Amino acid sequence: IKKLKELGINEVVFLSVQGAERSKVIPHNKIEKMIVNQNLNHIFLRPSYFMQNLTTTLLIDIKSKRQIFLPAGKAKFNWIDIENIGEICSIMLDRFSDFSNQSIELTGERNIDFYEVADLINTVIKKPVSFSNVNPLTFYKIKKNDGMEKGMIIVMILLHFLTRFQKEPVISNYYEQLTGKKPNTLINFLKREKEHFS
């Protein structure tokens, strides 16, 4: 961020995360504050939970163990396709002055817990998947044994365990306002990406 300032770049679209302004423990909060403190003109785009977490970070357990292991309990997450985020980012970059120094939450249309996510996955594939709610210590041990880096494990715990003690995500219609379309649904995403889960 300081380098941007040194280079004379004064406009930043930062891909943050929903609720970053309320959570001092996640890095996005600190980065947002750094951008403001450097007096950069900015747009904070705060999307909800990426659908693509299922085809990246969580995919190893899905494929090898047919389970999703997380300390998430029955916490509900709002799911958004990063393709929809990309569309909005392109609008922000193209029309920066229209949204300058604003924070924009970007969500899908439904809040869904991981039990329902596993059920949805099972409607589009033949080899069933289940959700296993584990406590943070068990999750840490499992992921450490799997070779995941300590920093990543901590971030995963923060993102999934702390959500259990927060209100359900607020649903925004910002995507529809800017594009005239509905955001992608999780079931459509799963159908599109189903080969990942087999």
Lay out the secondary structure:
Elements: H1 2-6, E1 11-15, H2 27-37, E2 41-47, E3 49-50, H3 59-65, E4 67-70, E5 77-80, H4 82-94, H5 96-99, E6 102-106, E7 111-112, H6 114-124, E8 130-133, H7 136-145, H8 150-161, H9 174-179, H10 186-192
Parallel strand pairs: 1-2, 2-6, 3-5, 4-8
Antiparallel strand pairs: 5-7
How many distinct beta strands? 8
Averaged pLDDT, please?
A: 94
Q: How far from one another are the termini?
A: 41 Å
- Helix share of residues? 40-55%
Report the order of strands and helices: HEHEEHEEHHEEHEHHHH
User: What is the strand content?
Assistant: 15-25%
Please state the overall shape, judged from the principal axes of the Cα atoms. globular
Question: Number of DSSP helices?
Answer: 10
Provide keyphrases for this structure.
198 residues, three-stranded parallel β-sheet, alpha/beta, 10 helices, 17% strand, single chain, 8 strands, three-stranded mixed β-sheet
Detailed description of the structure:
- The protein is α/β, with parallel strands linked by helices.
- It is built from ten helices and eight strands.
- The protein has a three-stranded parallel sheet, sandwiched between helices. A three-stranded mixed sheet has the order 3-5-7.
- Strand 1, helix 2 and strand 2 form a beta-alpha-beta unit.
- Helix 6 packs across helix 10 and helix 7 runs antiparallel to helix 8.
- It is globular.
- The model has no long low-confidence stretch (mean pLDDT 94).
